[in-house]
Amino acid sequence: MGGDGNLEEYQTLTNILRKYNPDIHGYSVGIARTDALGSNLNSAVPGAKAVGMENQALNLVEKMKIDPNVDFENDWKLVTLFIGGNDLCQSCKKPEERTAELYVANIEKALKIFHDKV
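Structure (tokenized):
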């Protein structure tokens, strides 16, 4: 979805970047599951919570390593994390599982994977 159309049609981060560098790679097109062809390097899981970010980070690193269009050691990479809305929605139902400390700890796990492996 991030790479659908162009900047004039869809104001997405991908389309902003593609306006200045049409050779970027990895963005998703269409609406697809993370294992679908159009997802490319998009590893986002709809409905995910911060507790799942570690696995999504590992999935993305593996996708980048096996993608023939990615020179893993030399290519610049831009990784975005959008998470929190589902955690907030669930905080009333299970407050002991949705504390700010657990949220931060789970995000830090994902960031550590990117720091150590990318």
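The radius of gyration is 16 Å. The chain has a mean pLDDT of 89.
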